[in-house]
Amino acid sequence: MHPVQRLIALAIAVLALASPAWAGSPTCVSPETKLSWPQTNPVWEMCWLPPNSSVGPRGSGLELRNVYWNGTLVLRRAHSPMLFAEYKGGQGGNCYRDWKDTVTPILASTAVQNKLGVVPAGGEPAKTSCDRSNQPTQSYGTCPYGLPVPSGYSCANGVMIEDGGDHVLLTAQYIADWYMYSSRIEFHADGRIVPTFGFGNRNGTYNSVTHWHHNYWRFEFDIDGLGNNTVSTNGVDQSTEFSDLRNATGGAGGGPTTWEVRNSTSGNGYRLIPGANDYLVPTNQSGRGFHTTDFLATRVNTSEYGDTPNYSLSDCTMHTANLINGQSIANTNQAIYYRVAVRDTTANDWPVGGPFIPQDSMVCKSVGPEWVPFGPWATALDLIYADGFDALVPGARPYLQH
Ligand SMILES: [Cu+2]
């Protein structure tokens, strides 16, 4: 081959490695805002919306649309359209379906307020009510939660976007009267997606009644963007909508239950691994029958963002049968719902009959799983890292060894 031809061939090969079929990038339309992280040679790109611009009846909290990893579509949408509180024995507040569309300020550096930025050296990351609340009976109100506000910091509404070197973290906070909820999601250079939900408070109302909070995330996958995904449970492909439970032991010889979504053709996929704290409060611990499932795999239907299109404060049951109603989920796009819950316990009240645990009702508790990539796109990343292309991703750590 002529030296010039060789050079051209080499250049093409290098370009192909640097951006192999990774041409995809979201188009964001107001009120969506585009995030590219890092800003040059982005690994993750997406459109984000604050809770007050999210879809669904009374919103869906922090909402992300058209999420791309290295130029390949992963998610059409990720958000939290169903949120509940329920009280022991129907005391006090009885039960509620909370709203998810009212923002409340977060204490954060101006560098990360509604734009990608880096927390100043020696400064503190974005602080929500949940981050502040570590005492069993004390509440701290709204931002700045009784704290001094450092120079360069302020209480701001919206989405805080912090560049963590090997990941980017988005933080939103929204309020439903007595409660202030933190919704966070991390996107790691190695492909992992780590959502966290914190159940905080504004004041101490019903602090004296043991109660539970439930958040349901909704992850609408379209891996590779071709509408042909498959969902499996512990490795077994599923063809019809189903609900499922977390299981730490999996029975005799088993392991923790995990679920996977993958492109039926390419094999690119994500595995949902429950977080350790997700197991702390079992399904329906209150015994009231409002929340009986942890995981739902549903077919994507137009404008279906939850179990009911009509929001009502007193509609405090999650109506599983409205979502799991026999539709096929074979070789299509699915919306995965994943429930996490916490219990805020009053003194001398839990467990029923004792011995009672100390009061922890105002201590904020955070829960959440991890989505881990698998398949060719994860394997390709191994090769890229092994070949030294991780220079494109400052601070990135090598992908999990297989
Ligand atoms: Cu609470």
Offer a quick outline of the entry.
The protein has helices at 3-18, 129-132, 320-323, 376-386; strands spanning 33-37, 44-49, 63-69, 72-87, 95-97, 106-109, 116-117, 153-156, 159-163, 167-176, 179-188, 193-201, 211-221, 229-233, 236-238, 242-244, 259-263, 269-273, 295-299, 334-344, 365-367, 370-374. It has 402 residues and is mostly beta strands. The chain binds copper (II) ion.
Structure commentary:
The protein is mainly beta and 402 residues long. The chain has one domain (37-392): Copper amine oxidase, catalytic domain (Beta-galactosidase, Chain A, domain 5, Distorted Sandwich). It contains 4 helices and 22 strands. It has helices at 3-18, 129-132, 320-323, 376-386; strands at 33-37, 44-49, 63-69, 72-87, 95-97, 106-109, 116-117, 153-156, 159-163, 167-176, 179-188, 193-201, 211-221, 229-233, 236-238, 242-244, 259-263, 269-273, 295-299, 334-344, 365-367, 370-374. Strands 1, 2, 3, 4, 5, 13, 16, 19 and 20 form a 9-stranded antiparallel sheet that branches. It has a 6-stranded mixed sheet with strand order 7-9-10-11-12-21. β11 (179-188) and β12 (193-201) form a beta hairpin. Mean pLDDT is 90; it is low at 12-21 and 383-402. The structure holds copper (II) ion (CU). Copper (II) ion is lined by residues 199, 201, 211, 213, 344.
